[in-house]
Design a protein that fits this description.
Blueprint (H helix, E strand, L loop, with lengths): L19 H6 L24 H20 L2 H30 L14 H32 L11 H26 L2 H8 L18 H18 L3 H18 L18 H10 L14 H5 L4 H15 L1
Helix pairs in contact: 3-4, 3-8, 4-7, 5-7, 5-8, 8-9
This protein binds zinc ion (2 copies).
Length: 318
């Protein structure tokens, strides 16, 4: 999961950028967006190469359009919801198409396929939960985010800040998720809450967010705790949400490609790692982390997975 963001209502659409550089440019708005970039460099300091500078300029022009036409409340709630839905459903489509068409079947981790009914049930339930759980959470959590320092004004933060904050969110989310997920695998919680997510022993992209509403709230907490602690820029928050959605959809895709992120990102779990968690009995599955592999290694909950991997390696060598 994924969550979300928000901040309150006091911020009006008209309460436009408070930074000096933007104020000085406001008379140019909106017809001369293209002239903004050189003044409001995303990097903040130092010269940029031409392509990066141009991309940053476009980004800041687009951001200026958003904060001029929408209030921060609208962006942090409905805007976040729209981005989440777009990224989630678009990124989840390929694996469902591959499963139905048989394309890339040699990279499919499990031989089994889901039925059409099972795929449809997952999608319909997701739409219901997204509207009835995720969206209200985004709206209700907005005041908290505002209180913790969420901002949306220009200039956008330097990339060094954006990327270091997002790396911190990934590490913290993985840690919280690991322990929460282990808890969800205790008998009572598994039976009454987490078994919903495990209805799909052969996962596909959309199943990443298919869970009991109580689990959606927990996962949402793990996702927003990092941003809530650091009071980020809304841009950083959106980028974090997009990367987290792509990561969990990939982990549930059911396909392990030669170009999968786990092939080149050190310590990254990915589809093979999480698929094992879904296909093994819940008391024995292990692999509880969401993103990385080191928590399961440190606490010895990846022994079954490692044993299977080494057996597979031995099999290949024979
Ligand atoms: Zn689980
Ligand atoms: Zn899962």
């Amino acid at each position: 999961m994924h969550q979300h963001v928000a901040g309150p209502s006091s911020h009006e659409a008209s309460s436009f950028p408070d930074s000096l550089s933007i104020q000085s440019l406001s008379p140019l708005f909106p017809s001369t967006f293209s002239s903004l970039p050189s003044t409001i460099s995303l990097s903040g300091t130092g010269p940029l190469t031409a392509p990066i500078s141009m991309a940053s300029s476009l980004l800041e022009s687009g951001w200026l359009y958003l904060i001029t036409n929408f209030s921060e409340f609208q962006l942090a709630t409905v805007g976040t919801f729209i981005i989440h839905e777009s990224v989630f459903f678009l990124s989840g489509l390929p694996s469902i198409y591959f499963e139905r068409s048989g394309l890339f079947s040699k990279y499919k981790i499990q031989k089994k396929n889901n039925t059409l009914d099972a795929q449809e049930k997952c999608i319909l339930r997701l739409i219901l939960y997204h509207v009835c759980v995720n969206l209200p959470v985004m709206i209700l959590s907005y005041p908290t985010f505002r209180y913790m320092g969420l901002k949306s004004s220009l200039p956008l933060p330097p990339w060094s800040v954006v990327l270091s904050q997002i790396l911190f969110y990934f590490i913290l989310e993985d840690f919280v998720f690991y322990w929460g997920h282990r808890l969800l695998h205790t008998k009572w919680l598994y039976k009454h809450v987490h078994s919903v997510h495990h209805e799909y022993a052969t996962p596909f992209g959309f199943t990443s967010e298919y869970a009991h509403p109580a689990e959606i709230l927990f996962l949402g907490f793990a996702t927003i705790i990092g941003p809530a602690l650091t009071g980020p820029h809304l841009f950083t928050l959106w980028l974090w949400m997009v990367l987290r959605v792509l990561e969990t959809v990939e982990a549930h895709s059911g396909y392990h490609f030669p170009w999968s992120p786990s092939k080149f990102l050190p310590l990254y779990g990915g589809a093979e790692f999480h698929d094992y968690h879904h296909r093994v009995l819940y008391t024995k599955s292990g692999n509880y982390s969401s993103t990385f592999i080191y928590m399961d290694w440190l606490f010895g909950t990846d022994k079954g997975y490692r044993k299977l991997k080494s057996l597979e390696e031995e099999g290949k060598q024979l």
